[in-house]
Write a structure and sequence with these properties.
Helix content: 40-55%
Number of helices: 11
Structural class: alpha/beta
Strand order of the largest sheet: 1-2-3-5-7-10
Largest sheet: 6 strands, mixed
Order of helices and strands: EEHEEHHEEHEEHHEHEHHHH
Distance between the termini: 35 Å
Shape: globular
Radius of gyration: 19 Å
């Protein structure tokens, strides 16, 4: 691939968007490669994914304005769908996804980060949805995920003003989970991914599914989702091994390869 680097380290993978001269901006080619890379992840062996950007200046600076400036109405809608389809694939990936945000996360970059389960950023990171200044709306889920992650009022303020915010404010409003010095960011993200990967994979995947699906429905229906996923963990290798080792005070030995039993 021309714009994506992908590396597997034990039970985790690191995906890097590699277009540093354009601050890793998303054009159609980058989105196509990102889509292909996500689809190709071996979910039998990879238990957590880290997404980051190449270089020290930018995670993803946004969608490619040069490409967007020439789009018709129909093409603009199709481009939005392309980005939304890829980001939704990331959001619903069975394994946890951590964004390691190493600089600018503007427009499509912020939207990509928000499609991940957990967001860690450098102290140099800058976030924003500046689309109104370009005469458009956020198009890759920004109007929807931002309101769900922070609050409708804060999301409206950021989107309507087009104002950028720094890492400390992103942490304060709950957009990111933690802030690190730039040189510590990727190691911290990988360490968290390894911690997740060492837990029982069936349970971790069920937790992600329960949280994501539960957020989309009312509490009564959400509890039923949790009950079914809770029950699905029983009689699996991970449950038998985990509870057996707890009772005997031994260390669990999860299967090296993921299976549903």
């Amino acid at each position: 691939m021309a714009f994506i680097q992908y590396e597997v380290k034990d039970m985790i993978a690191v995906l890097t968007i590699d277009r540093p001269k354009a601050l890793n901006a998303l054009n159609s080619a980058v989105l196509d490669e990102l889509d292909a890379a996500i689809s190709a992840i071996d979910l039998n062996t990879v238990r957590a994914l880290v997404i980051t950007g190449a270089g020290e200046r930018s995670f993803v600076a946004g969608a490619d304005i040069g490409e967007m400036s020439k789009l018709t109405k129909a093409e603009g809608e199709a481009f939005g769908k392309k980005g939304n389809d890829v980001f939704r694939k990331i959001e619903t990936l069975p394994i946890p996804v951590i964004a390691a945000i190493n600089g600018f996360a503007l427009g499509g970059g912020n939207e990509l980060a928000m499609s991940c389960d957990i967001r860690l950023c450098s102290d140099t990171a800058v976030f924003g949805q500046p689309e109104v200044g370009l005469g458009i709306t956020p198009g890759f889920g920004g109007t929807q995920r931002l309101a769900r992650l922070v609050s409708p009022g804060m999301a409206k303020q950021l989107i309507y003003t087009g104002r950028n915010i720094k890492a400390d404010e992103a942490l304060r409003i709950g957009l990111v989970n933690a802030v690190y010095p730039l040189e510590e960011l990727l190691p911290a993200a990988e360490k968290m991914a390894v911690t997740i990967a060492r837990n029982a994979p069936i349970a971790v995947r069920a937790c992600k599914q329960a949280i994501n699906e539960g957020l989309e429905v009312g509490m009564d229906e959400a509890i039923v989702i949790e009950e079914k996923l809770f029950g699905s963990c029983f009689e699996t290798h991970d449950q038998i091994e985990g509870m057996g080792c707890f009772m005997s005070r031994e260390k669990p030995k999860p299967k090296a390869v993921f299976t549903n039993n």
